[in-house]
Amino acid sequence: MQRTFNRALHYLRPLVPPVGWEVLQTMQSYSRGGPLVALPPHRRVLVLSPHPDDEVIGCGGTAALLARREVALRTVIATSGQHLAVPDLGPAEVAAARRNDAQRAASVLGTPSPVFLGFEDGSLAGSLRALSAAISDHVADFRPDAIFGPWLFDAHPDHQALAAAVAQAAVPAETEVWGYEVWAAVPVNRLVDVEKVWDLKERAMAEHRTPAAVFGTAGHLALNRWRSVHGSGGTGHMEAFLALHHSTYRLLAERLEERSAQPG
User: Fold this and answer.
1) Which residue in 123, 176, 182, 188 has a CA-CA distance of 20 to 30 Å to 62?
2) Could you tell me the CA-to-CA distances from 70 to 33, 44, 170, 221, 240 in Å, in that order?
3) Residue 223 burial (CB < 10 Å; 0-12/13-18/19+)?
4) pLDDT at residue 180 greater than cutoff 90
5) Is the pLDDT reported for residue 94 higher than 50?
6) Span 37-261: which CATH code?
7) Tell me, what's the pLDDT at 215?
């Protein structure tokens, strides 16, 4: 039955309007019991990023799609990434350049210019209380029904610290937290098809010129190509998330912290 449904969708795709295809794609993902493929239904979304460029890598396509639907968005970046070792630039110059990068990238995606919290790059783990308080302030002011940020085990200390700060922040229990992936693959339960805005995501990534002078930032985007295997038979591009209500997210973070504290 599942194979027949998948074959029917393959032949129907050229004949179905984009909105109708989104519905069929969601139905297909639901029927096979894997990650649900659907655009988030939220009306107010707070995007949290450890450094300039993570917001594009992790959820830039989804943010662009939500902006097109006139969803209220706020992007908050914890650091300016000033300790990136860029040749011939000092930390203050790197910070200014990376803030400019992020503003240009937001313009490409059609999202508001980001807010910068000003925490020290590379030191978020030592600033958890202050970082959590800053997130709580934005939640109280903006009242999001979803928060996007790096998932709890993303393989970078600043990313893990930001995820832990979200867990500790004053967030309503029913608010959804969507953990995105940058340095490590997330155990996915939500996928968003970003193929129709893929050119915007690539252009926004290209605006992060400062880190591109140090390493091949576009390599991160291969994750979205790979994720299409999980959601659309290996065609197009998708962003992956672990989506949980904040009450569950907080509990998971606490359990992970307990396990990491155990000897051996």
Assistant:
1) 123
2) 30, 10, 26, 25, 22
3) buried
4) yes
5) yes
6) 3.40.50.10320
7) 86
Residues 6+ away with beta carbon under 8 Å from 36:
26, 29, 30, 189, 190, 191
Distance CA 97, CA 167 (A): 30
Tokens representing 139 are: 């939640």
Instruction: List pLDDT tens digits, range 20-41.
Output: 445 444 444 444 556 789 999 9
Q: What six digits make up the tokens of 62?
A: 């989804």
pTM score, whole prediction: 0.86
Average pLDDT over residues 143-149: 98
- In angstroms, the Cα distances linking 128 to 135, 145, 167 are 10, 23, 11
SS3 string of 41-64? CCCEEEEEECCCCHHHHHHHHHHH
Q: Distance from CA of residue 237 to its chain's centroid?
A: 14
Give the distance, in angstroms, between the CA of residue 254 and the centroid of all CA atoms in the same chain.
22
At position 140, the amino acid (one-letter code) is A
Give the strand order in the sheet containing 115-119.
36-37, 190-193, 238-245, 176-180, 146-150, 44-49, 72-79, 115-119
Task: Tell how far CA 94 is from the center of its chain.
Answer: 23
Q: What tens digit of pLDDT does each residue of 245-259 get?
A: 999 999 999 987 777
pLDDT band at 18 (very low <50, low <70, confident <90, very high): low
* CB-based contact 179:48 (threshold 8 Å): no
Residue ranges of domains in the chain: 1-33, 37-261
Q: How far apart are CA 97 and CA 103, in angstroms?
A: 10
CB 154 within 8 A of CB 182: yes
